[in-house]
Amino acid sequence: MARAPQPLRPLLDGPWAGWLAWSDPVAGTFLEAAIGTSYSRPAGEGRAIVMLETRPDHANRLNALHGGFLSGFADHALFAALAAMGRPEQMAAVTVNLNMQYCGAGRVGPNLQADVDLLRETGRLMFLRMTISQEDVLIAATSATVRKAAERK
Predict the structure, then answer these.
(1) Given this model, what pLDDT does residue 77 score?
(2) What is the DSSP secondary-structure string of the chain?
(3) For position 23, what pLDDT does the model report?
């Protein structure tokens, strides 16, 4: 039986060597079409960094990064960060709440960097905070609550 492609894979060479790459293996999904491949790595206990290369199709008509794209990236970055923190089973968790504060205009070209902190974890929920920046300039801030994925038996 052929094994399904895995969306999360460690990169061993190239500019993202040492990072985890996440691409949706199913063509035409929102993640594959609208977001693209993200790169994540741990950044200490309960912390991770998620990077994304911006593309022209991430822009709005003013040639700034579209707010809907930024919130979609923020939602994705939560799970990419949890996987980088050693919790890949949470790639199947769901967002309960996502608050987004737009702090500046993002530009097409520079990579986006999401710095994600796991603030608290209960039996069913995870509480996270994130900042999104480009070239050390704050673009957005996010707080979120995630319902953990059910344990597989």
Answers:
(1) 97
(2) -PPPPPSEEE--SSTTTTSEEE--SSTTSHIIIII--EEEEE-STTEEEEEE---GGGB-TTSBB-HHHHHHHHHHHHHHHHHHTT-GGGGG-EEEEEEEEE-S--BSSSPEEEEEEEEEE-SSEEEEEEEEEETTEEEEEEEEEEEPPPPP-
(3) 87
